[in-house]
Amino acid sequence: MTPESTFLWYIPNQAEAGHRGDVAEPGHNGLDTLTRQALTIEEHGWTGALLGTGWGRPDCFTVAAALAARTTRFEPLVAIRPGHWQPAQFASAAATLDHLTGGRVRVNVVSGRDDFAAYGDTESDPARRYARTAEFMRLVRRLWTEEGVTFAGAFYRVDASTVVPRPVPLGERRHPALYFGGASDAAERVAAAEADVQLFWGEPLDGVRERIERLRALSRDLGRDLPPLQFGLRVTTLVRDTTEEAWADAEAKVAEMARREGAGWHDHRRESAVGQRRLQDLAARGDVLDDNLYTAPGRFGGGGAATTWLVGSAADVAGSLAKYRDLGVTHFILSDTPYLSEIARQGRHLLPLLRGR
After folding, report:
1. Which of 278, 331, 333, 268 minimizes the C-alpha distance to 304?
2. What is the pLDDT of residues 34-68, one digit of tens each?
3. Among candidate residues 346, 340, 338, 286, the one with its CA nearest the CA of residue 315
4. Which residues make Cβ contacts (< 8 Å) with residue 341, sequence separation at least 6?
């Protein structure tokens, strides 16, 4: 793979211990434990990590700020929801954290279903929710790059608004990258017009190829006025010393998931979400797709990135990820449990292959 690829890990940011088979230790989500993960991410060559978000989890932005303060290179990919924030409030908070960290902030804008009533968000209609997200992203980017912004939209309004301090410019980077996910028609239109990076779940190569082609065409049709949309993959990578050992461990994990009826694996299981349905439907095509994309976890409670796994030796998994890179994917968010030990294992054995060393 080429050096411009970005490799991130995942910190689940869960209130309850034992997420997706992780070690259920005391203080699992305390600052010392989370800092140990972030420092291990730095030590083993990862760029940073996606931090999970959702009502009922610790506040993602607060966790990101705390981890950024305890690290020197770690880049948090902060997952946020427009229903939680006003655009100017968020633009200011993110710009401040970016300023304090020397340009280490990335942002994942989430529009999927959540417990809207619990935090007072009344925008439950999907079409209006995605229209609001598009307006949020456009306005936040303007607030990061312009001064004296006046804007009156369907959802937000600001008058002569200037964010201070400004995000840190680094080369061609003028502001934190805006990542976005979603597979519905409405979501893809938001990504094609407003996102910097479109994230995919672990679909087979043919599905990712088809979506990249469609999003590029949509970008042209919508008159995208931003730099070209980039693409990312969020997937579980189960890596062991040998192919045989990896598959034995993968099958044992799925058997345990089945025994526990998916307990601890359901945080992304939204049957109404188009992207999640696409993943769940893959199991009907076979337990293993492409070379080593394992679909069986989705039968027993795997949700989101845990629905499909890339399984094998470091060379096997690196070869599969290279095929996604050949399609145009340049951002990779990987993980497996136990999270801490897998940061190190995959940092030692997988990352060097991905970076071409």
Report:
1. 268
2. 999 999 999 999 999 999 888 888 899 999 999 99
3. 346
4. none
